Amino acid sequence: MLWREQRRLNRPVADALAVTFTCILFAVHFKKAMRRMEAGGGKAGDVEAADAGAD
Question: Could you tell me if 42 and 33 are in contact, meaning their C-beta atoms sit under 8 angstroms apart?
């Protein structure tokens, strides 16, 4: 009986871990992107500079 109860908890625990991990990764990458945008650099800035030089 304990095995069945434990088995029912496996999926919700795995889902909670996956959501937590995804939120942490998103927050880290979002903060990096915001810092790049505030500094005026980053990938978007590189594309704009390349477009300006093409004229």
Answer: yes
Three-class DSSP labels, 1-55: CHHHHHHHHHHHHHHHHHHHHHHHHHHHHHHHHHHHHHHCCCHHHHHHHHHHHCC
Range with lowest mean pLDDT among 3-7, 21-25, 48-52: 48-52
Q: Which two tokens stand for residue 10?
A: 């496996």
Residue pLDDT, tens place only, 17-37: 999 999 999 999 999 999 999
Amino acid at 31: K
Identity at 29, one-letter amino acid code: H
